[in-house]
Write a structure and sequence with these properties.
The protein has 86 residues and is α+β, with helices and mostly antiparallel strands. It has one domain.
């Protein structure tokens, strides 16, 4: 999970995402605290090359759908992730 900031957003969405997919990390989350949104990407393969595809965006409107795809028994509370953020 990467938490975006003004100084790292471009890096997190490009180079770091590429590094994780090249290492076969099954799942990549981007948490945008400004928009109160979590983007969940899952690793897929096209012509034997790994790439991330957007699996789901989770916001206040669908926060009950927040789940770790590859570890469904681990529960994460959406509100807890953003607790204390103004």
């Amino acid at each position: 999970m990467e938490v975006l900031s003004d100084s790292t957003e471009k890096y997190d969405r490009t180079e770091k995402k590429y590094i994780y997919q090249e290492q076969d990390i099954d799942e990549y989350w981007i948490l945008d605290w400004r928009k109160r949104k979590i983007e969940i990407y899952t690793l897929d393969y096209e012509d034997d090359f790994p790439h991330y595809r957007l699996f789901k965006e989770v916001t206040r409107n669908n926060k009950d759908e927040l789940e770790i795809i590859h570890f469904p028994n681990i529960k994460i509370n959406f509100d807890d992730l953003f607790d204390g953020i103004e």
